[in-house]
């Protein structure tokens, strides 16, 4: 199974004139998603705070034959002056764009450490950096009634609301109707004050990589506010957790490679307009093999934001020519009839009856998990809900492998 799409596919909306900006694009997941988008025919502006490393990354990708699709500019998202300079440079050289991937982030902790010594720079880079960049670039998004631009903020499940045990903070973040940027700033200010006072450990903040988690907690909350604000502008705003990935931040440890995470990130960034939602948190892991034969795995955890639930594991096997698609699911869901369906279930999604049955079993209680583009003619009868990447409670969007 390949993420690459046939240029004649009805779901392919992009071309070389489509422009994406990727922050932190000189290494790790950032470099991998720059490469993936360029392979798929998108023009990408690779950014990095270190000019030398950014140019080295550009040269690497040029040597792989992608030079016509990639440009480079210095951008340090922790520096407002750098953001302003980049916006001016971009406007002069390109003018409009379609996709912003906020990937750049920092953590100063080892894998099993939890120091908050650098909390201010972590918050400044991981939360205020993407926020200021989005605001600076908003005038340059390509917007029309028929075109959807996209903001994809790389985030983390460490920043989900259920990781916060302080009831007052949770109440602020869960009050969607009254949540505001000022209230998010207030949460950040409280955290930094408690860090300075040395009493943050007993105040109900996330227990793992606390400063990093708080920065992503704020980014997730801001993304939901921004999604509502931009809904009428035809700009979607979503968050994506790539999971435990082998990068410099994790010391090279992880359950997946940067390429795997980038494949799913690129897929989310390029969802067809009819499948693209906004204000969602997506978490996924998949393997995309070479050619049209192979198998992939997707894992999603969680249900409604802030409510823990069992994991769902999906196995996809694709036969030659996409003639067979099998969906195996396990655990954590109950049917609409209220019956427990823990354990394995299996269906062939190409068959409308079994497809409906699978989604009946999987959608209530925890999930709808679906494939974004079952659009070959033989799959024309698959129910519409199976083409959407959404949670039945509309609080999460779950990545899936796309044919």
From TrEMBL:
UniProt keywords, alphabetically: NADP, Oxidoreductase
Origin species: Chenopodium quinoa (Quinoa)
Family: Belongs to the short-chain dehydrogenases/reductases (SDR) family.
Record-linked Pfam families: adh_short (PF00106)
Protein name as it appears in the record: Uncharacterized protein
GO MF assignments: oxidoreductase activity
PANTHER family (alphabetical): (+)-NEOMENTHOL DEHYDROGENASE, NAD(P)-BINDING ROSSMANN-FOLD SUPERFAMILY PROTEIN
GO cellular component, one term: membrane
């Amino acid at each position: 199974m390949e993420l690459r799409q046939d240029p004649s596919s009805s779901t392919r909306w992009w071309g070389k004139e489509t422009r994406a900006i990727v922050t932190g694009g000189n290494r790790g997941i950032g470099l991998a998603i720059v490469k993936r988008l360029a392979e798929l025919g998108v023009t990408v502006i690779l950014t990095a705070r270190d000019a030398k490393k950014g140019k080295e990354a550009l040269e690497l990708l040029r040597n792989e034959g992608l030079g016509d699709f990639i440009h480079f500019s210095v951008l340090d998202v922790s520096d407002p002056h750098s953001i302003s300079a980049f916006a001016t440079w971009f406007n002069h050289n390109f003018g409009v764009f379609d996709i912003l991937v906020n990937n750049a982030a920092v953590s100063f902790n080892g894998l099993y450490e939890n120091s908050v010594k650098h909390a201010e720079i972590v918050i400044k880079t991981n939360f205020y950096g993407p926020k200021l960049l989005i605001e600076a670039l908003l005038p340059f998004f390509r917007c029309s009634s028929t075109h959807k631009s996209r903001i994809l903020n790389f985030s983390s499940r460490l920043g989900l609301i259920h990781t916060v045990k302080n009831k007052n903070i949770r109440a602020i973040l869960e009050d969607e109707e009254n949540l505001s940027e000022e209230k998010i700033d207030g949460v950040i200010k409280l955290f930094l004050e408690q860090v300075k006072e040395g009493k943050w450990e007993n105040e109900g903040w996330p227990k793992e990589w606390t400063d990093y988690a708080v920065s992503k907690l704020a980014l997730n909350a801001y993304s939901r506010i921004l999604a509502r604000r931009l809904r009428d502008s035809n700009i979607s705003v979503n968050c994506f957790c790539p999971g435990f990935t082998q990068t410099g931040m994790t010391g090279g440890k992880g359950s997946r490679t940067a390429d795997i995470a980038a494949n799913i990130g690129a897929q989310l960034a390029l969802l067809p307009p009819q499948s693209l939602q906004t204000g969602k948190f997506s978490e996924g892991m998949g393997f995309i093999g070479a050619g049209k034969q192979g198998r992939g795995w997707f894992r999603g955890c969680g249900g409604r934001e802030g409510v823990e639930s069992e994991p769902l594991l999906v196995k996809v096997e694709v036969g030659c020519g996409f003639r067979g698609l099998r969906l195996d699911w396990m655990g954590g869901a109950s049917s609409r009839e209220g019956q427990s369906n823990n354990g394995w279930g299996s269906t062939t999604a190409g068959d409308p009856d079994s497809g409906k049955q699978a989604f009946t079993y999987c959608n209530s209680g925890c999930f709808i998990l679906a494939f974004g583009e079952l659009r070959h003619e033989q799959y024309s009868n698959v129910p519409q809900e199976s083409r959407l990447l959404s949670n039945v409670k509309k609080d999460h969007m779950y990545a899936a492998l796309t044919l």
